[in-house]
Amino acid sequence: MFYREAGDFKVSYVDDSQTFPIKFDRYRYYVVLAVAFGIIPFIINDYWANALLLPFLIYAIAAIGLNILVGYCGQVSLGTGGFMAVGAYACYKLMTAFPDVSMFIHVILAGGITALVGVLFGLPSLRIKGFYLAVATLAAQFFLVWLFNRVPWFYNYSASGQINAPERDVFGIIITGPNAPAWATYLFCLIFLAVCAVVARNLTRGTTGRKWMAIRDMDIAAEIIGVNPLRAKLTAFAVSSFFVGISGALFFAVYLGAVEVGEVFGIQKSFLVLFMIIIGGLGSIFGSFAGAAFLVLLPVVLKVVGADMLGWPTDIVAHLNLVIVGALIIMFLILEPHGLAQLWRVAKEKLRLWPFPH
Amino acid sequence: MKLKLATMALGAAMAAGPVMADLVFPSLSYRTGPYAAGGIPFADGYADYFTLLNERDGGIGGVATKVIECETGYNTEKGVECYESTKGEGSLVYQPLSTGITYQLIPKTTADGIPMHTMGYGRTSAKNGDVFSHTFNYPANYWDGASGAINYLLDTNNGDLSGKKIALVYHNSAYGKEPIRTLEELSAKHGFELVALPVDHPGQEQKSQWLQIRRDRPDFVLMWGWGVMNQVAVQEAANIRYPMENFIGIWWSGSENDVLPAGEAANGYKALTFHNVGTDFPVFDDLQKYVVDAGKAAGAGDQVGTVLYNRGLYAAMLAAEAAKKAQEIHGTADITPAMMRDGMEALEITEAKMTELGLPNFGPTFSVSCENHGGDALVGVTQWDATNKTWSLISEFKATDGDVIGPLINEDSGAYASENNIGSRC
Question: Which of A20, A145, A160 to mutate to test the interface with B (most CBs of B within 10 A)?
């Protein structure tokens, strides 16, 4: 009734190829943007920013990045944690070397450096596929963490091997460090997420994305119809690592403020982001958001309900959390193997036919 | 997106809890994960002491205490969530029991004006109160531990370690890396050779490190381990028949959990400490009467008297004494975090005070000042008796090598001050 194409006339090619062709969808998108940019910054506090929104926004960027590689291009990667570490350490080195440069530039440069590293570790993908490629990226994960632990230059020779984000600003507004206001850190990450999502969405709709998907679906067939596998695979690694690098830089500089590479960017992080896109939906931008939201918010909600409201012992809640998240993952994989994004798609199909399903 | 907004709204309603007039002591504990064996007794001891104060004395200065527990799992991200969710409840002092979370909270607590006490862990140079206004690490820190271990070895080797080889088995993280600088300085000073052997998180895999020890045969092995890493190390040492009396752990590697799995083979293993062990103190009678028998013990109630339980108890005692001091200074029973900080900075623990609290000779005597947030750096040594399954103090609390540690602290805290533009305040 509300959600339908009928009556929504397209009079130009631009109209026809827009991201949200259905009016209701389009308005919903504008409302979400308006709330995220226009309302939340005014009501946000430290708890909301640091406990929920920052991790959600940053993980969503990482999930979009990994989704480009795994979901769109079909190259399985277990090196996300390592690539996030590259972004974080690149950002740290840039922040300490050029204190007067805006944080925006640091984060983007950190993404660029990660893209280069990603391309380097993506080279084996030209010869190996599937599980073997997963193992090669796993090597990247362990090598990068080892490198940042081992070479003191990366952590500026500090005694503990930790990196700490100094106070840096954008146009005079403090973004990193303990005195950064919650709204500023939130908006900073939100801008990156919004731009990344739009860029990713349009890349995947265009020639580049179609080439990636061709490689994913059948690489030999793709090659025969004229897709260059070298370029397609390496661009996927570059774009994916660029996003993952940005998320790593934000994770370190804006969210945590102090990072120890083995603990924060270990193999668990790679798996966490991989779970996000599997649960959210492979090959879907919305799925990256949904998966990140699911895995970031669910533990916090369970903790708030269990420990703070019901007063259960904290260890029981922590264990229950593992049980519930694990059970939900299994349930999703059985009932809806294509993730939350597919649920959303099915819901939209149903809405389109409502109230007269045939 | 809608789902997200709905969950957010739900969470908002929940996060806005009631504001209590109690004295709030948040406990960022970890009862799950690879470090739970250490986290559980500490959290129990911390909570039980405050329960005792409430039940026996009606709180501190007539105001009831309240412990808010939040599970971090030794994970920095959860630590941030815990800090943010509890700081609005009037939290007086944070004790995260994790060096990683400490590094994260040092700037945050300073900006929010809430003191943090990192007893025997965290950033060592926080001892310099001139730079770290809201961070305290009395009564001892890692560098004191490193120096205390070397002093103990000097004592037992007629004051001469030249030509000896000492291996350091450490957790490959900020925590484990802390003592290396000091040990390097000390090795230059005393002429011993230092071999550093990192063990990666969580520390279940140490075969190659112990193979190297077996090959090199160092005269002594020091260990900076935590959680499951400790028991694996003790077991591996037993497997290669390394003489246990030459194996010394830091205070985080010296609890019952670490030595029991190795059984008889762990006999003679030593660990550093900055507080006494056992239950032979009057306060434990009160604990039994008011807390354990009343069924109010935290957790399963089976940890009373273990090394880490005592440490949690000691941490709670120091926090309570600082709160008393703050009430005294500011003349009000209902103190704020800022007042608590003043109380911590003016804290003085004397033998008479510990006796009065039912803890005679439980820890070293020390006093805190604006310049010195680290106490007087006295370190003792305990040894494990596998037959009786008890730890016993074999070396009294002794002074550490301030000549080596002092300049290192000034250097490190000076670097932090210039990085963050912190001026002198004392």
Answer: A160
